[in-house]
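Bench log, entry 3. Co-assembly request; chain sequences pasted below exactly as received.
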Amino acid sequence: EDKVVQSPLSLVVHEGDTVTLNCSYEVTNFRSLLWYKQEKKAPTFLFMLTSSGIEKKSGRLSSILDKKELFSILNITATQTGDSAVYLCANMNRDDKIIFGKGTRLHILP
Amino acid sequence: DSGVTQTPKHLITATGQRVTLRCSPRSGDLSVYWYQQSLDQGLQFLIQYYNGEERAKGNILERFSAQQFPDLHSELNLSSLELGDSALYFCASSVVPGGYEQYFGPGTRLTVT
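Structure output for the full assembly:
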């Protein structure tokens, strides 16, 4: 059965720290891995990864995919209180079916 | 504001009833996705439409159905509602299917009493 597992489930750090969020997956006919940030409203898109080893960056956020070991990480450097959110990892397969992980709840202390 | 609109924002109904949730995708987006988010199950993919045709099905119950109309808006119909159907229902859209960036609407919060 296809699944996406995120760790840790929750994380509390101080402002300025660097965090690494993990996403491992077992998906048949993998197409892409996606990261979303969800605050109190709807998820907002962060990254889409399809190829191994190619880092995607947006400001203080970056992500990379390892298709051999079946995982991805999301890094956030110099964290700010505005980074507090639930970070969701999702996989889409070639049948366009999408599976989300349970998310990592990140809380940044000022 | 993602450009995706959903109505209504909130819906309270009784068990056994039927409701319709509506979604208008971003201008130019041809693909619409429906998701259910509950505290215990997380975000679950229900169904995807592309240009009026059903493209992919996820964990959608038989009591639920959806369609996408020629003007590309979509409706999700939930019938014979149960307490466990209480959840936040999101619609998302993308230009085309296939894992591209999806823009989520604000959601409809359904409460079944």
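The interface with chain B takes residues 31-32, 34, 41-45, 48, 50, 88, 90, 92, 95-103 of chain A (CB under 8 Å). Chain A has no helices and eleven strands.
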